[in-house]
Amino acid sequence: MNRTEQIRRAQADIASMTAPDLPVLPPIVGADIWEQVIIRADGQCECEECAARKHRKADGRCWATSTPGRPLHAVPRDDPSGISPMMPGADQLLALCDDCHAAAQARVRRARQDAAKQAMRDAPVLFEMAADDP
């Protein structure tokens, strides 16, 4: 059997599987922590802040679950952008779907931009140029 036939056979095997047959694989780095977070969340997105989002809710939470093609993200509770000098423990992480993770990152980005703009407004002026200076 040549390589092309092997690929076709593998694709056919995968296509014949249903979603429950396919495993949801954790990321390579931090797999044990990711699994703890997903198990604690019962495989469901833990977002409760996206009330304005157009996805359905189940008991106040996003309805998205971890699936083979779209696993949930384990992100820090206090900074969903994921910028952290150290790996937080499972109790400091939330399980978020792609949409809620992107929305949380956008909220953090907007807050940082607003804080930077406010800091620029509040900063003392070092040099002032007069309009009539050459």
Structural features, described:
With 134 residues, the protein is mainly alpha-helical. The protein has one domain. The chain has helices at residues 3-16, 31-40, 98-122; strands at residues 57-58, 61-62, 73-76, 93-96. The model has no long low-confidence stretch (mean pLDDT 75).
Query: What is the element string, with H for helices and E for strands?
Result: HHEEEEH
The number of helical elements comes to 3
Q: Over the alpha carbons, how many angstroms does the gyration radius reach?
A: 23 Å
**Average pLDDT level:** 75
Q: Count every beta strand, where a strand is a DSSP E run of 2 or more residues.
A: 4
Global geometry: elongated
The low-confidence parts are: none
Total domain modules: 1
Name the strands of the widest sheet in spatial order. Answer: 1-2
Helix content: 25-40%
The largest sheet is: 2 strands, antiparallel
Beta content: 5-15%
Cα(first) to Cα(last) distance is 80 Å
Structural class: mainly alpha
